[in-house]
């Protein structure tokens, strides 16, 4: 099992505008009012760079910034792991539409924004960070993959790290083939236990036991969020698979959860205030 302390949390989703207010909702202390997700303009970028960012990138930068601010750690000193379930679907579709024409000319800007590490690239520019960064994607398994990667790096390097996990819907017609629902993202600043501070302690371990899975949907055995209005988001949005964990974190509860990983594995999570 790998262990780390959670120093800061970022959150943005339907009706969940930041960890301070969204955490109160996830804890059941305030009602959820579903609203459109509108990520704020990113800070720390030039006006030209801000214009280039898509809503998906702005979502990732917003949750990353909130988590780092709450941790009180200089963002320039943090290595980072950014996990997207599918990358920036809006940009991908625009490129596919161009490739379907006779001209087949893809603009350099679109290509620049199509690479999978575009979010972490903009983050390092905005934060002024030269620390190592990783970008990964595992479709429906992006949350457990991101957690395992981040916790393993914290244990190996014994230093704080930023983890940001996001998923955003595709436009039509790609949305019909891969329905994501509403945008959702969260971020955690993780640190080794020796750090001695934080809002909670999280442990994780991978088990390669046989575990049922259905492609494209939440797996049998994964706990649903307690808020019924978020069940559809949890079913469709890969990043929203973290909602049960975030609910327990907001309630400051000790908990044991599991996330199925692939067709034959699971990640067991422990949480303690």
């Amino acid at each position: 099992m790998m262990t780390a302390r959670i120093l800061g949390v970022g959150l943005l989703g339907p009706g969940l505008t930041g960890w301070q207010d969204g955490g109160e909702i996830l804890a059941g202390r305030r009602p959820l009012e579903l609203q459109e997700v509108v990520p704020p303009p990113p800070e720390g970028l030039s006006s030209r760079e801000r214009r280039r960012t898509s809503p998906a990138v702005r979502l990732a930068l917003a949750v990353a910034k909130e988590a780092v601010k709450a941790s009180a750690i200089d963002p320039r000193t943090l290595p980072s792991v950014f996990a997207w379930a599918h990358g920036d679907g809006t940009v991908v579709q625009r490129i596919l539409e161009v490739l379907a024409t006779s001209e087949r000319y893809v603009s350099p800007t679109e290509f620049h924004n199509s690479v999978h590490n575009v979010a972490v690239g903009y983050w390092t520019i905005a934060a002024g960070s030269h620390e190592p960064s990783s970008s990964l994607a595992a479709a429906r398994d992006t949350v457990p993959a991101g957690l395992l990667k981040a916790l393993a790096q914290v244990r190996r390097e014994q230093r704080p790290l930023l983890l940001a996990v996001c998923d955003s819907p595709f436009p039509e017609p790609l949305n019909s083939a891969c329905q994501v629902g509403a945008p959702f993202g969260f971020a955690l600043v993780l640190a080794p236990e020796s750090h001695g501070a934080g809002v909670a302690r999280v442990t994780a371990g991978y088990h390669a036991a046989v575990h049922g899975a259905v492609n494209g949907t939440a797996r049998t055995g994964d706990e649903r969020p307690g808020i019924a209005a978020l069940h559809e988001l949890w079913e469709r949005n890969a990043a929203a698979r973290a909602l049960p964990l975030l609910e327990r974190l907001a309630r400051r509860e000790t908990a044991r959860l599991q996330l199925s990983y692939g067709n034959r594995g699971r990640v067991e999570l422990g949480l303690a205030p």
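The domain at 2-272 is CATH 3.40.47.10 (Peroxisomal Thiolase; Chain A, domain 1). The chain has ten helices and nine strands.
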